[in-house]
Amino acid sequence: MPDILAMLFAVLVYFDGVPQQCVVDTGATYTVLTERAAAQMGTLSPVVAQAQLYGAGGGTILGQVRYVPNVGTGEIGWSGVSVIVVPNDQLAGLDCVLGLDLLKRQSVVFDWGKRELRAL
Predict the structure, then answer these.
(1) Cβ contacts of residue 76 below 8 Å, gap of 6+?
(2) In sequence order, which residues have a C-beta less than 8 Å from that of residue 74 and are 6 or more positions away?
(3) Res 6 pLDDT > 70
(4) 3-state SS assignment for residue 3
(5) Which of 101, 105, 120 is nearest to 22 (CA)?
(6) Number of independent structural domains in the chain
(7) Cα–Cα distance between 90 and 71 in angstroms, integer?
(8) CA of residue 56 relative to chain centroid, distance
(9) End-to-end CA distance of the chain
(10) pLDDT digit string (tens) for 42-73?
(11) Domain range holding 39?
């Protein structure tokens, strides 16, 4: 059986200049970071709201909504981004999931060969 992590599409995303490897998940409504990843980012806002997410397995994940001024992949950039910060053990070994809240802001191309996300 193939390694499931090798089948995921991951890209390097910069949160106000701080790089983080993020799995692109077109089934995720929101962009989510673990507390570990969020601790590396000095520009996250204080908590602005509490969030309740529902995982693919039906479980509930509690998190905190925070803002980050600028997020980008190198070619694609988003400003005024909200992210949900969850406990470290809630993303199945991942630290970042890039969700539809950002992906739907513009048309993008998934380049599997180069492992890049580009604007269309």
Answers:
(1) 106, 108, 117, 118, 119
(2) 12, 14
(3) no
(4) coil
(5) 101
(6) 1
(7) 22
(8) 16
(9) 34
(10) 888 999 999 999 877 778 899 999 999 999 98
(11) 4-119
Tokens of 30: 């929101």
What does the alpha-carbon distance between residue 4 and residue 2 come to, in Å, rounded to a whole number? 6
What sign has the CA pseudo-torsion 40, 44, 50, 52?
A: negative
Residues forming beta bridges with residue 108, ordered by sequence position: 119
Higher-confidence residue of 5 and 85: namely 85
Residue 1 is predicted with a pLDDT of 42
- Give the CATH number for residue 104: 2.40.70.10
Lookup result for tokens 């513009």: 106
Looking at residue 35, the DSSP 8-state letter turns out to be H
Q: What distance in Å separates the CA atoms of residue 29 and residue 104, rounded to the nearest whole number?
A: 10
CA dist 118 and 110 (Å) reads 7
Rg over alpha carbons for the chain, rounded to the nearest Å, is 14
CB atoms within 10 A of CB 37: 22
Mean pLDDT of 83-112: 90
Cα–Cα distance for residue pair 64/47, rounded to 1 Å: 6
